[in-house]
Amino acid sequence: MLEKQLLHIAQEFGSPVYVYDSEKIISQYNRLTQAFSKVKNLRINYAVKALSNISILKLLKGLGSGLDTVSIQEVKLGLMAGVAPENIIYTPNGVSLEEIETAAKLGVQINIDNLSILEQFGTKYPNVPVCIRINPHVMAGGNTNISVGHIDSKFGISIHQIPHILRIVENTEMTINGIHMHTGSDILDIDVFLYASEILFDTAKHFSNLEFLDFGSGFKVPYKEGDIETNIEEFGKKLTKRFNQFCKEYGKELTLAFEPGKFLVSEAGYFLTKVNVVKQTTSTVFAQVDSGFNHLIRPMLYGAQHNIINVSNPKGRERFYSVVGYICETDTFANNRRINEISEDDILAFKNAGAYCYSMASNYNSRYRPAEVLWHNSEAKLIRKRETMDDLVKNQVAVEL
User: What is annotated as the active site (predicted)?
Assistant: First the structure.
């Protein structure tokens, strides 16, 4: 999107505000499907946790996407968006059997990642096909918090426990219709991904009724100009060749599934904030904005870098600023960053704000969560209202003391 469009949106809807460019989401979806165009049966299940606004889910449904969900609430959001139950996979971690039963009754694909629930569910519902999430014991991801396939991870059933899985399947006579893995996020080295894929193929050989193999996601997207990213096109060629070969060995055309979140929506998102104060100290110039890690926690939580542009002065001379928020703790978005000269009341746009940004927002310091806007067909559409004081207190119960 152009700086001029972002500035107009901030003026119309106020700040802070999240903006999503539908054209970028569509182009990323098409790029992924094109990379795997030689796979006969391809399934893209958008990871709802990245950005769960119903309008975004509807947009992706219109492109042909299914959904990857991790909670019963995300399942229900998907159904509300009109996604068919059979196009939703539910992959929880550490939830109760009751929640999994609820999802099963809604007709979605169940994906189980521990032996205890697998045995309990298989005993009660042997006729409900389930997918199994394995842990391939491959360390992958850009941060320890988002590397989920290593040996110490809480996610998935260890590949060393396959004999236990087979015993449960035999005893319960349940059907395993899919095998799933997810090694982590921000994966750059496709060879690591391909290595983990071989483990998935080896695991799949133990099951005779499979319908699909789910390779997760975690593709690295660029966060700044010249940044490195996963080469989806090269990865598509290499995995397609190996997957088609495996289908011949297996004797059946399986579906190849992915569950991208960040890859589809990260670059589509912009977070717009207004500069309240430009504060010069003895060593630093702070640009203090009308937001904080209550709205965008990734820099403080993951050390994530979001490129910041001054849409009010995009051609101004560059100076160095530390961009900080208004939360009553260390609340830094960027340290000593080169940005076009900033004045008070300027609008700053944080790029790559589509994934895991609004979805991780909170009401810390009793601040309102911001509005969300979708830029679609050259028109700005409000898809979530800014919260109000009524929203903050609506579930509170004032007792007599």
Answer: 328 (proton donor)
**% of the chain at pLDDT higher than 70:** 95
Binding-site annotation: residue ranges for pyridoxal 5'-phosphate: 218, 356
Q: Of these residues, 131, 247, 328, 357, which one is catalytic?
A: 328
Residue with tokens 């430009």, as numbered in its chain: 278
Summarised one tens digit per residue, pLDDT across range 63-113 is 999 999 999 999 999 999 999 999 999 999 999 999 999 999 999 999 999
Q: Which residues lie below 8 Å from residue 384, measured CB to CB, with a gap of 6+?
A: 53, 358, 371, 372
Give the C-alpha separation, 52 to 56, whole Å. 7
For residue 52, pLDDT beyond 80? yes
What residue numbers does the annotated binding site for substrate cover?
298, 302, 329, 356
φ/ψ of residue 338, rounded to 5: -80, 115
Per-residue pLDDT for 264 more than 70?
yes
Residue 237 half-sphere exposure, CB side, CA atoms within 13 Å?
A: 3
Give the 3-state DSSP-derived string for 297-316, with helices as H, strands as E and coil as C: CHHHHHCCCCCEEECCCCCC
CB 364 within 8 A of CB 372: no
Q: In the chain, what are the domains?
A: 22-264 (3.20.20.10), 266-384 (2.40.37.10)
